Amino acid sequence: MALVVQKFGGTSVGDVERIQNVARRVVETKRAGHDVVVCVSAMSGETNALVSLAEQVSGGRPPHAREYDVLLSVGEQKTIALLAMAIQELGEPARSFTGAQMGMRTNSEHNRARIEAVNADVLHENLKGGSVCVIAGFQGVSDSGDITTLGRGGSDTSAVAVACALEADVCEIYTDVDGVYTADPRVVKDAQKLARIAFEEMLELASLGAKVLQIRSVKFAMRYGLPLHVRSSFSADEGTWVMPEEEVMEQLVVSGVTCNKNEAKIRLQSVPDQPGIAARVFTPLGDAGIVVDMIIQNYASDGSTDMTFTVPRADYSRALEIAKAAGDQLSSRSVDGDDSIAKVSIVGLGMKDHAGVATRMFEVLARKEINIQMISTSEIKISVVIDEAHSDVAVQALHAEFIDDLSD
Amino acid sequence: MALVVQKFGGTSVGDVERIQNVARRVVETKRAGHDVVVCVSAMSGETNALVSLAEQVSGGRPPHAREYDVLLSVGEQKTIALLAMAIQELGEPARSFTGAQMGMRTNSEHNRARIEAVNADVLHENLKGGSVCVIAGFQGVSDSGDITTLGRGGSDTSAVAVACALEADVCEIYTDVDGVYTADPRVVKDAQKLARIAFEEMLELASLGAKVLQIRSVKFAMRYGLPLHVRSSFSADEGTWVMPEEEVMEQLVVSGVTCNKNEAKIRLQSVPDQPGIAARVFTPLGDAGIVVDMIIQNYASDGSTDMTFTVPRADYSRALEIAKAAGDQLSSRSVDGDDSIAKVSIVGLGMKDHAGVATRMFEVLARKEINIQMISTSEIKISVVIDEAHSDVAVQALHAEFIDDLSD
To answer: Measured between CA atoms, how close is A147 to chain B, in angstroms?
Structure first.
């Protein structure tokens, strides 16, 4: 008998029929002899409807943060009640808990609160009493008793935090894909579902835009060594286990090839190569709330330097304006940019022990005559920025080189 | 400076525009120098949508009571968040409170919980800080921390209970009519809005089917001597004040004529006139959850008796079946019924001091050739059951006799 936390997203509970489907899944797990805690999101569409109401009331201005959380939290509250009813209809006792009721304590930063503690007593007590516990993801309560929400990816994080607090055996993340793939199957026909992946790799993949798990939840699970099982709501097949590095038996050199088309690059040509320059460029960007991803600086022979960086594509024109203002002050020869780029990355724990992976990557791209504009590396990741038009070819070629080959 | 509790029902907060309208109203009161607590219902239509979801999940069976309350309570939570935002948009600080947050303690009878205590500290503290407090009607929290709802008329009751706990100066009940009328204006052209009415009269009128105030809330206000002001959400005119008898200056003999078409009558002819008979008829009805209103028993000369009673029209056929079974056991000559009756009543504190009101009522009906089937009286009310077809004529004639005459 294990203690299992199951998390279902908005699509999985999108209507009554799907909620009943989730209930069947939960009851199966319960009847297999396990204790079950289910964490759910708002029904898909629900949050958007609430956001739109708030926008109407506040006339486009950002709504008051405290009240916004009171409003948004009704989404999950609706789902927990309906799911608890559906489980009871199948003959198993079930009780629902809002964030406040289950003791999800957060700080008081509304709309993006951080979890401070989970009081597991209520859930333990109800599990002991034989109930399935249905808990609201995304929401918590501050010390002053105010409702808070965790911001983007909050439901995954709620589920993982509760699983850690309960010392659960596994946290199952149900989603509309059936696991973590070596590449986007829409781009790479031979993309493979990974049976296991290490936390560190998953973190890199999530940071690179793989939407299957939220970064915060992976960090949480990694810190506590809690195994995650990413699997499909619509099938009983095993998905992908995300677990500590030492438990991932067969390490691939490269376990995933990703592509992110949500960035744009900006270049300041020929700025003085002296201390303090970077700060004068990036401080105003930070002040404008623009998050810079890659930064590359090249030394030129004439005592000047070129600086190139990437920003989210949605912030491109604002960032370009700010960069131009900074460039003027620094007597930059010119400031230009490009918003049709793609960042293609390979990720793998095995890289640490295998020299020459970067070289092989560059050779593959050279053979396809794809020009590399920027390069950035970490211990288990290599990213290159290329022309967006070549991204599919690049991903396919890299997948063939590093992954297909191994499985043949 | 006064402390004012304002209550707005589902129609008054039915969409964003109406919520903004309510916000303006609240802000006006606040800027006139008063402390304001606003109690709101779910947006109209919202509760029905939630009920329908629950019905879909539970396949027509009654949904689990605890979870049903978790579900229904999201309706008001949505409204309080939106209204607090709308008030803030107008430049006044506002904070919303769910039933649990504001300390509305109830017993744990889900779906029809009774208020046990209101902890006014949170609201007092926030009022002192200068905020408008926006509270969710209809919902509370049990000692075990479970969400409860108060059942029908809950929002009026919430508002009145909070006003009593805060020792407010008045509880304003905003509705889609502009006060309490001497009769239904759709039936009686000359129906007048009452400036003042005593609690006792209002209780009788509410019991007789006047929908403007819920019985529970009137009882609460009466017990604490809290003045209620029933008025329109859509106009600034004074409505009707409901207050202690001694403060209603000019007492009319009859302050209202009502008509209730939601009952049906059932008659057991010729049952033995002996002890225990009534119990054998009414115990099975009570067991079936059927509420009997009027009961009349006539003595016949042959040692038998006729018994007639009324039940809600929705329960008529079930009640008739039960009565027939009881009639068989009691060797009743026959059991029959009629579901096209109307109960017409006159209500007025002045009746206590004026003899002959009943006689005048019967004479008026006799002149219109309306046959009286049943009669029931209290100190400040006389009700008669007549053929439904004659109800409008009866109400108009009684209004002309007791009310129009006085105001001429």
So the answer is: 9
Give CATH superfamily name and number for A245-408: VC0802-like (3.30.2130.10)
ipTM higher than 0.90?
A: no
Residues 6+ apart with CB under 8 A from A226: A160, A163, A164, A168, A170, A171, A220
Query: Per-residue pLDDT for A312 more than 80?
Result: yes
| Subunit contact A78:B71, Cβ cutoff 8 A | yes
Q: For residue A315, give the nearest of A335, A343, A290 by alpha carbon.
A: A290
CB–CB contact A95 B66 (8 Å): yes
Neighbouring-strand partners of residue A174: A8, A231
CA–CA separation, A11 vs A282, rounded Å?
A: 39
CA B133 to chain centre: 25
Question: When comparing pLDDT for B302 and B223, which is higher?
Answer: B223
Domain with residues A3-176, CATH architecture: 3-Layer(aba) Sandwich (3.40)
pTM of the model: 0.83
Domain boundaries, chain B: 3-176, 246-408
Q: Is A16 in Cβ contact with B57 (below 8 Å)?
A: yes
Q: Give the distance, in angstroms, between the CA of residue B260 and the centroid of all CA atoms in the same chain.
A: 13
Strand, coil or helix: B392: helix
Residue B117 and residue B110: Cα distance in Å, rounded? 16
Smallest CA–CA distance, residue B73 to chain A, in Å, is 9
Is residue A244 helix, strand or coil?
coil
Chain A residues within an 8 Å CB radius of B96: 66-67, 70
Note the pLDDT tens digit of each residue in A236-278.
899 999 999 888 866 678 999 999 999 999 999 888 877 778 8
- Between B61, B66, B71, which is nearest A82 by CB? B71
- Show the tokens assigned to A407: 């499985």
Phi/psi at B9 (5° precision): -85, 180
Interface mutation target, options A18, A85, A102, A143, chain B, most CBs of B under 10 Å: A85
Contact of B92 with chain A, judged by CB distance below 8 Å, is answered with no
- On chain A, the residues whose CB falls within 8 A of the CB of B74 are 74, 77-78, 81
Class of domain B246-408: alpha beta
pLDDT digits (tens, 9 = 90+) for B333-354: 899 999 999 999 999 988 877 7
**Chain B: nearest CA to A72, how far in angstroms?**
8
